[in-house]
Design brief:
- The complex is a heterodimer of chains A (about 230) and B (about 250).
- With about 230 residues, chain A is an all-alpha fold.
- Helices cover about 80% and strands about 0% of the residues of chain A.
- Chain A is built from 8 helices and no strands.
- Chain A is flat, with a radius of gyration of 21 Å.
- Chain A starts with 8 loop residues before the first helix and ends with a helix.
- The relative contact order of chain A is 0.15.
- The longest helix of chain B has 16 residues, at about 180-195.
- Chain B is globular.
- In chain B, the strands form 2 sheets. In chain B, strands 6-7-8-3-9-10 form a 6-stranded mixed β-sheet, with helices on both faces. Chain B has a 4-stranded antiparallel β-sheet with strand order 2-1-4-5.
- Chain B has helices at about 1-5, 50-55, 80-90, 105-115, 120-135, 150-160, 180-195, 205-210, 230-235, 240-250; strands at about 10-20, 25-35, 40-45, 65-70, 75, 90, 165-170, 200, 215-220, 225-230.
- In chain B, α6 runs parallel beside α7.
- Chain B is α/β, with parallel strands linked by helices.
- In chain B, about 40% of the residues lie in helices and about 25% in strands.
- Classes of the chains: A mainly alpha (about 230), B alpha/beta (about 250).
- The interface of A and B includes residues 134, 136, 137 and 146 of A.
Amino acid sequence: MNSIDFSIVVPALPYLWEGLKFSLILTLAAFAIGMVLGTALALVQHLEVPILAQFARGYIAIMRSIPLILVLFWFFFLVPIVIGYLNGTGRPVPIGATYTAFITFGLFEAAYYSEIIRVGLRSLPKGQYEAAEALSLPTWKIYWLVILPQVIRAVSPIILSQTIILFQDTSLVYVLSMTDLLGAASKLGQLNGRLVELYLTVAVVYFVICFAASQLVAVLKARTAIKTR
Amino acid sequence: MITTADVSPPIIEMSGVTKRYGSFSALNSVSLSVSKGERIVICGPSGSGKSTLIRCINRIEQHDDGRISVDGVELDGKLKNIDAIRREVGMVFQSFNLFPHLSIVENCMLAPVEARGIPKREARDRAMHFLAKVKIPEQADKYPGQLSGGQQQRVAIARALCMLPKIMLFDEPTSALDPEMVKEVLDTMVELAGDGMTMLCVTHEMGFAREVADRVVFMDRGAIVEEEEPESFFSAPRSDRAKDFLQQILH
């Protein structure tokens, strides 16, 4: 029982693959939600939109000060109670682990992405804004066609680095008993008693994916560096 | 030249324009009237407010006091009016400010398509026309980063012209250029002046001022100190400050 036996990994692969698929989907969904919402949060601050700018600052401060695992719990246990309270029945309305994970990670990452984009917006030369204004482009088109394409390109290595961290953080859905890559390994391991082998296997998978992605970050960095004159 | 300028109605009218940054007055109740087709060179020591003056005309800077009207439209903070004025006023910056993520021809097409709703094909034809005018049509598909400073500035001129403006503002267009590239940009501007464009140029290129300016406006400490025809300004400046300034730049 105590000897290491990797032969049990082969039959486990289909189940681990299911787990990995969920980890990747959750990463992609959180990335998509986080980028859209994060860009919006960055823009309302950059444009100093009344009320919304203050809201964005407060939101980001809170999200960045609370551990992700706590936000997950909060959504999982508290939001059903709040919804139940709001719809008048007083009975909790469960939103399910999957939705909890998608929404939580999306909202949480939005705070981090928005800080990255906000810095990008500030670092763009003022002349870009002025030239676009002088050409009588409407404000939303200035941002959509001139500013954001440059900002996103400039910060894409940092965005990707953050997304690698996000991918690793998705393993936290373990606390909601979900079957992501780590969850799959853990569940199988508890059944067959081969936790060490399975944890080693998924560690290698995490390493390969994250290492490959960070190599991509290096390539991106080199490319954006050439772009700047 | 001066006489025709005198009869046509002013296309830019500024009166009592004041701009403050905190307690510092960048413009101190400046009044200036520009006729259609007039070419004005604005010069003066750094910090004299000359850039601020032309940047107020199209609301890149917002003036605090006084009135500005451009082509009969009052610049009063209404978005509709700001937009109407910006459509008629092209601007060329010291640092070119081309959009680095767009190709040269896309730089020139962006505003006509996105701000004026002109069909892409027409905008492309127009862009190529003005790129030919500034003599770099062969660079159309390159990106700004691949061009020299002089070429970039000529693209910036073409980009502004693609909006078919009535007025062109130049904010030290040759100050960021290597010396050997100054001439190609000035030549483009001289040609533009020959076409009858109303031009306001902030520049220290006194040769250019002599050649094309109808009027030289000398500014110091946020105020217009002298307005003269180039010949009389250069040969016989009236104020001591203008004399000092000319001595320094003509060494």
